[in-house]
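Interim report, section 4.2 (structural modelling).
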Amino acid sequence: MAKSKPRVKVPKKAGKGEVITIKTLISHKMESGLRKDKKGELIPRQIINRFTAKFNGATVFEAEIQPAISANPYLQFNMRAEDSGEFEFIWVDDDGSTYTKKQALSVS
Amino acid sequence: MKDMTRRDALSLAAGMAVVAAFPMPTMAAADNAMAEIEQFTGGAEAAQSGRVTLEMPEIAENGNTVPLKVSVDSPMTSDDHVKRVIIVSMGNPRPGVATFRFSPMNGVAEASTRMRLAKTQDVVAVAELSDGSFHMTKTTVKVTIGGCGG
Amino acid sequence: MRVSRFGVAMAGALAGGMFIGGHALALPEGIETVKVAPPSKDHPLPEIVSGWNFRAPETQALQSDDFENPGFIWVEQGAELWDAVDGSEGKACASCHGDAAESMASVGAEMPKWSEAKGKPINLEQQINACRTERMGAKAWKWESGELLGMTTFVRNQSRGTPVNVQTDGPMKPWFEKGQNLYYARVGQLDLACANCHQDYYGKRIRADLLSQGQSNGFPTYRLKWQKIGSLHRRFKGCMKQVRAKPYKVGSDEFLALELYVNWRGEGLPVEAPAVRQ
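Predicted structure of the assembly:
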């Protein structure tokens, strides 16, 4: 897979006060830095090291992750829906690149 | 259909003896894990209070992808909530797995992910609450085929 | 007669709903059954069981949810490629085949098919590359590349739930027989045939693994071991290496014949692609 692709599953609508579940997954090999190639040399570490979920700019949930997290890292957490607004999900790669995804939530 | 011959049985066993070999300093792994926890708590005691729950399978079919769900019993209000939860492996080449930062906005203190386990071991979860207290739990996962560590 | 613990578990499964080894089976979305009766009396298996049945509940859970199933990364990539123009003819798959949900609704369950043009069977990977090189003026995708895996998984996924049904008569017959011979041939330092593991001892533990019937209905499959999706031919290679035999090449005539024969052994099983296995 050439480039990492984030996926998120969040309800588009929620009742006020309802606790919703947010599921995220990004394609990434999560190279641990502990594996050796065929020549016996260590393959350099390259992982997603941080995930941040913001809602209307405020950080809801954050995860600092290590090479012990599986390839194609999956993260699931919750949020109590109070206001309508927009989620922003950010994944940070060891190589400095970031992947983001946005999604609106309407609360009634 | 025929019975299993001794030759087949031996062949079958040999055929599966291709379990990846990892250089694993076992004692060091546990020491490193304790150090990781101590760093997280700043040396404070973490109570086995039953407030933290760590759900993982008893037996993992493959150590590369083992589902994990951590939850902490907390009202998640602005004066009483979970701030952080750290997941630590007691048997991987490196102890760190993940640190989750929660906020009262979460409503419930729960997170799920999937982790790598190099071999059968204990996995520990420690939670830091907004009152400054630490709570922990651990669970044992039997790994039949090890993952590439972490 | 083969009397195994699995036999007892299967009897239980038949009597009391889907219970194997004490685990309740949550069936994947769109899949009603993972076990079927053999189509004829001379079928080598007393019942045809998907690899799904042999996996731990956690592995099954990964497959059951289309979001949590990491195989869908490739399905989505394939869906994008379906609409992407490539090659000298300025065409995308969609230019000729339109909506994949309609045009590809069953082909995934019927491969390999006889190709008049090639004078031999053609499997899904080969058909995709044939369309690319012969109709789009595009380069063939490498076997096991992200693109070919993505497209194969996407096309196979359109047939999810459709029972596997391959042609084995007419011009396919010699290929079927070749596949059958390969399946029963003892190979490698360990001198074992596919049938020794997947017919004689399925349901038994072989060190850490619970042996299945080695069915193909879940492919391309996301393997926890590989940490990615892989083709059926890659799996064949792995099984041959396990018995320390020199594996045939992916896309070879040998594996094509074996694919045809293995698909026939699983006839009636619903396509599960992308399955999740250990």
